[in-house]
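Task card 7
Instruction: Convert sequence to structure tokens.
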Amino acid sequence: MDFYQKAKYYSIEKFTTSAFSLLANASKENLIRLTYLAEKIPKKESYREKIRWIRTLFQIDHPALTIARRVLKETHPHHRKKMINNFIINQLLVGTNRRKAFEEQRGFKPPNAMLISPTMRCNLNCFGCYSGSYSIQDELPFEVIDRLVGECKEMGIYLVIITGGEPFLRKDLLDLFEKHQDTIFQVYTNGTLINEKMVERFVELGNVVPAISLEGLREETDIRRGKGRFDHVVHVMDLLKKAGIFFAISTTQTIRNSETIGSDAFIDYLVEKGCIFLWNFHYIPIGRNADLSLMASPEQRAWIRERFAHFRATKPILMVDFWNDGCLTEGCIAGGRKYFHVNARGDLEPCVFCHFAYDNIKEKPLMEALNSPLFREIRSRQPFSENLFINCPLIDHPEHGKEFALKFAKYFTHEGAEGFFTELSPAIDAYSKTYRKMAEEAWKEKIENSIDQSPPKEKKAAGSPRC
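Output:
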């Protein structure tokens, strides 16, 4: 990095750190003024648009303001500094500009994040686990993971998401986090290996954000994960909150727990325990003992979409629904458009739920693998529909998913993965058709409401509404 770039980075760092310090106690009026300054930093229009959206949230006293202040007041100072430097500055500001420059120079748009599974070993045996059919013999060598993180940073990617298996069975992960101090690592974990000593290590590192799995409250969690698992996760949440570590909760919606996940009681409980972020995924019949009967019904899926919209407007917690929130990401994010998955064998999968591949990352550089015929074909078809309530090529547009898996991929990444596109195909097609009718009505209503609420000059240009 030359002197000019260092000086520019230092200026951005000082401005952003000062801005977020003000955020904790500043008046709403000063925060709104601050967004006008922030809007001048990123080169990419989509990020400037997001800053304008944040300004709107401040103007209407949205719970997002409470969330921001919670993060700044409740997190450990070192952790807060790392979150600001690694995520806000490196990933969103500097990284955005670097990814844009990379695209202009190389003709290839890098994704925003990498998801990687260092191991598929796990110390639990949850029914319906999406990764339960992978071989537990294969593990990514530390050198390969380290290389991939480095290649990501060259493209402007400073957000690396770790999953598995249970990632913390790999003791060398903490060495990876320490080596790449400029990167933010979100780790999906069952929480069983997190104790006081590990939380102290999180505080020292500052760049780790745990995302702990829950299935709802005690009954739902213990049924799927084992007796006592809920109480242990509660203990871990208490440890993290006391230490000032930003953490998320990860849920998997099934037909059995939808009512709990969509309840005020569950969300209020998470807020009380210090959770800042909720990731909701949906059970897909892949992996261990694929079971169609576990899928949330189309009616439950539609209900959760509506409940999350309600929670986002009323609760001081960030929430993302992996299936239903396409209007936040302009559709499907797979195939390297915004993210991709590297499994423990090194296979580059379009999505953590797409168990097929074209390349293995041990055999070629990341940039080359991201430009495979499979990934290019996926990106050329996204977002699959103008209706951003139906985004997934597996569940919502299975005609695309089958083509990607059976025609453009070279191989499936574990035994039995092809069954989703063969034996289960008729049932998935029927599910898709049923939900599509609901989604079309809901999307039409949302578009009409979005246009009606736009100022007169903007009505013609009103685009896709936010979730």
